Amino acid sequence: MLRAYRSSEVAAAERPLIEAGVPLMERASFAVSTAVARELKARGHRVAGSRILVLAGGGNNGGDALYAGAYLARRGAIVDVACPAGNVHEGGYAAAIDAGCRTVADDELATAARAAGVWIDGLAGIGLRPPLRDPLASVVAMLETERATSPDEPIVVAVDCPTGIGVDDGGVSGPVLRATVTVALAVAKPGLLAPPASRFCGRVEVVDIGLSVPGLPAVAALGGSDVADVLRVPDATDHKYTRGVVLLGTGSAEYPGAAVLTAGGALGGGAGMVRLDSPDVASLVLRTYPEVVTGMGRAQATVIGSGVPATDVDRLRGPLDRALAENYPVVVDAGALSLLKDGYEDLPSTAVLTPHAGELAELLSARGEGLTRSDIEAAPIRAVRLAATVTGATIVLKGGTDVIAGPDGPVYAQPARSHWRATAGAGDVYAGLLGALLAGAGEDLARAGRGYGQPALLAAAASWLHAEAAHSDGPIRAGQIAERLPAAIAQALRG
Ligand SMILES: NC(=O)C1=CN([C@@H]2O[C@H](COP(=O)(O)OP(=O)(O)OC[C@H]3O[C@@H](n4cnc5c(N)ncnc54)[C@H](O)[C@@H]3O)[C@@H](O)[C@H]2O)[C@@H](O)CC1
Ligand SMILES: Nc1ncnc2c1ncn2[C@@H]1O[C@H](COP(=O)(O)OP(=O)(O)O)[C@@H](O)[C@H]1O
Ligand SMILES: [K+]
């Protein structure tokens, strides 16, 4: 699991170590120099003879970059050092000069940038309060143009974070220096995991510098082994009912395929049994999935709304109210989200809402929170937290990175592995899959009560599996994502 902590929490955890003389900066800069060497080697280059540009701001982030430059110069790299902030970390600068680095004047920066195959971005780290001010703002804008137009794009290694991102809120409010790889010191930071900032980070590598940050992370991203920990694997005592029954109120005469796709998601996600309560589309679903049972009945999780137009959702009130009354989990997707615009003031965390940004904007405005779709896309962490607080429910904001929050606990940010996933019906598969994971835990969730954080964790696990199943180098259909879910589950369980 990648765990991200806010800059104030990192700074508080650092303080006693720094006071005790623990050489955090030496460790950080050594890790950065190792990352640079690894990037060079991966492209068939050696450190000796490579041209490297150190971009050093006036804070400790600049210090890390300068000491890293000194290590690399001692290994034979040709290292230029630019300090465009007007001030500089003195110890780091002295070490760099001592190791043979060359200082670049401000008017030589563009030329030095063009000549270097690697840029080390130490302009600002967790001490930055965006938006970036001049002179750094213009320097970053110039470097970004240089990077984007260069025939040989440089490898940009960001120290701790790409300069310019909102480290704590994941926002982007000015120029940002896009990274190839971000070397996160000790722990990730929210902006490294959550969009839009995470889109500027490249690969995120967390390096151990002997600093641990206590408490729950603000943002987390599950890996395969975390998913394996929460999956319910059947044993000799299980039968279809204990594994979890998913009831689907999905699909309609207008969008019949959504019922097929949610059923595929639930079956592929390991449901013990799938029941379908959508008479209009039952024969279509049975043609693809004869395993599905039609009609109402007991279920440990309910999925409603996928492929049901808002004009036809009244029939879903029954299953929704029953799930809420019995405290069983319910996934509220697509058209069914419109049911929540009136009433349903205080939902439990076992109600999991799966909007895209447009649907979340509509839901929030119906609840008196005037956020537009673009406000939500600019600040998804804030939007899901707000929506979870306002509704009491667990929120899955679907997109290139799924951003998930319950009424408390961390926000989960689960990235797509391929953007070919953005295809019609992929969300229906997700809703069915999530239904299966929730049904597997349904009895426990029903017992645990309203504010329990597990639904958000299960939604994050569903996002990981969905991303894995949708991983593709070319176009993929939603139906194929459903078919590949069993392999994704097996992959998580293999570790
Ligand atoms: N505290 C420590 O000893 C350690 C910190 N580490 C490094 O230190 C970094 C944090 O260092 P600092 O707290 O010195 O801060 P930073 O170096 O991240 O940033 C502060 C600098 O940015 C400038 N700045 C802030 N907001 C700005 C804005 N909006 N526009 C333009 N300039 C702006 C400040 O004037 C200051 O020069 C971490 O990200 C990490 O790289 C590591 O060396 C590990 C140990
Ligand atoms: N840019 C993107 N890259 C990867 N996945 C995406 C992107 N945008 C959306 N997705 C995913 O595609 C699916 C779309 O779901 P949704 O908007 O409900 O569409 P539909 O109703 O057609 O299924 C979600 O699982 C979402 O996470
Ligand atoms: K940086």
From TrEMBL:
Keywords recorded for this protein, A-Z: ATP-binding, Isomerase, Lyase, Metal-binding, Multifunctional enzyme, NAD, NADP, Nucleotide-binding, Potassium
Organism of this sequence = Flaviflexus equikiangi
Q: How does it assemble?
A: Homotetramer.
> What name does this protein carry?
Bifunctional NAD(P)H-hydrate repair enzyme
Its needed co-factors are: Mg(2+); K(+)
Domain YjeF N-terminal per the UniProt entry, residue ranges:
10-217
Function, please? Bifunctional enzyme that catalyzes the epimerization of the S- and R-forms of NAD(P)HX and the dehydration of the S-form of NAD(P)HX at the expense of ADP, which is converted to AMP. This allows the repair of both epimers of NAD(P)HX, a damaged form of NAD(P)H that is a result of enzymatic or heat-dependent hydration.
Q: Any idea where the YjeF C-terminal domain is?
A: 223-492
- Binding-site residues for AMP, renumbered to this chain: 427
